[in-house]
Amino acid sequence: MQQAKFSCQEDQLEFLSNYRDYGFKDKSAMVRASLMLLRDNLESQQLRESANLYAEVYLDDSELKTLTDSAVQGWPE
Question: Residue 31's domain spans which residues?
């Protein structure tokens, strides 16, 4: 596993030093889990923003609505 060097604020270091209280085997495991959560949150936020943009386009484009309606005709409900 590769290593990285980074700086933390004092309160962040204090929080990190309590890794056992949160069920982690070491500080690195806690940082890795935190980074994965951050990545998942950022990706979810990007997906929501993208979906909102698509929804806006759909609402403003009557041709797209017609195309979508024609594509679903004949599909089971």
Answer: 26-67
